[in-house]
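Notes on consecutive records. When two proteins share a document, each keeps its own sequence and its own token line. Never mix them. Below: protein one.
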Amino acid sequence: MVQPIVSGPESLSSAIARRLEQMILDGTLLPRQKIPSERQLSTRMGASRTIVREALKELRGRGLIETRHGQGSVVAGLVPVAPADDPLSGLCREHGRTLFDLLEVRELLEGQAAWLAASRGSERDFHRITHAFQALTQAPSDAMAAARLDHRFHQAICEASHNPVLVHTLQGLMQQMLNTVLASVTHLYHRAPCKEEIDRHHRRIYLAVTGRRAERARNAATAHIRHIRERLLEVQWQERQPEYTGHGGRLSREAE
């Protein structure tokens, strides 16, 4: 519950705007998350709806929130989400090496995200992670649906890091990151030993993060992404394919 704001030298609407801004910075309000209604904010912050409306207008003018008619306001992505036809997506489609470059980035960022989530995560964060993990254990056979559940699990851990720069950076690379997950789902999930190992990795990450074992969480997360990268390279080598087709992406022999 947000505490009422006592008016000082600055205007009450600006004070409310700063409070909401801080909630965005510390991860209480996540990218694309809906902001409480004017009525709810008015009650929580002890201000009139007119004042709250002014605060939201200020945040909207600074690009921190987006308001859609009839849908309310949501937190804007601080790092713009790249469209499917952006240059990086094009490189991913045309050059398989880029996929492995993205996996290297995931290894670095998600290892740190897991460490931070284990260190800073709240019970609410762990509830979200648990929900995502349970959904992942019942992943459907459809590759894209399974990839989205896999990606959502890792995203929930990142959000629990309470590092807004990290969260918004990964949000900006969402489509590219999803493509790396889809590659692993498409090319590894149907191989029983690979799928079993991936499931073990996910469980280790989940238990380490929710058990607040930060170093173990970092090691489990980095080992998982490194394992995915190595297995995809093995599959490419074994199948001797000049390229493979995934969801809008190709893995070329240049990545060997």
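Protein two starts on the next line and is unrelated to protein one.
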Amino acid sequence: MSPASLRLALLLLLAAVPPMAQARPIAPHPAGASDDDASDFGRDFALPYIQCVPYARKVSGIQLYGDAHTWWDQAAGRYARGTRPKVGAVMAFRPYGAMQLGHVAAVSRIVDSRTILLRHANWSPIDGRRGQPEDNVRAVDVSPDNDWSEVRVWYAPLGGLGTTHWPVEGFIYNKKPLANERLTVLASADAPKATYTSRIGPDFLKGIVPETSRTAARKPLTARVVVKAEPKPREEDRTLAVSPSLARDPIGRIIAARVR
């Protein structure tokens, strides 16, 4: 092959190979991406990558920002918080294992005292891709006291609940906290009530005599007492016996005689 033919073959071969910038594989979403740039990250790719924080904010209406593990403390004084699920509330997960930034998910339905459905994003890899939303997937309370402090969550690759017991801070409700509220503890999904700190000290009843003790002190003796009958007063003395002051009040004596 002549030198000219060799150069032509090399040029044709180089033209068929894509540049290195085009051959580089698409990198996964950075694990430490903040809430502010998460929504913009998907613009660089054909398919968007949805983070859990902006998705939970959108579906719940709770306007908190920043990494998921900061939501529970951020909600203090701004939103009511508690340990019982309610539709529309956000379940705040604690950081655990590889989930270093925590997680947030919105409650879409309450099935029973141990089962709810969630709407969240960036939990299960679906078709090999993370950063996708999942709606109405199961979460089951596995805490010993049924206080929703530990849950198992539906995991798409398994086609069922995952085996990990994920720790949960609690639920953030889309409403203002009550005055002097420590935590809004829901007795049920539809009956919210607040828990307040009692101001009654242990010595509140100190020195108070119970009513039963006073009644017992006034109870008459059981011994039989013989009372002699007094002689019947005369008519002219009856008026004076009503009150000593009537002896000096002639008008009072007349009124007393009429009301007898």
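For the record: Residues 16-34, 36-45, 184-217 have pLDDT under 50 and may be disordered.
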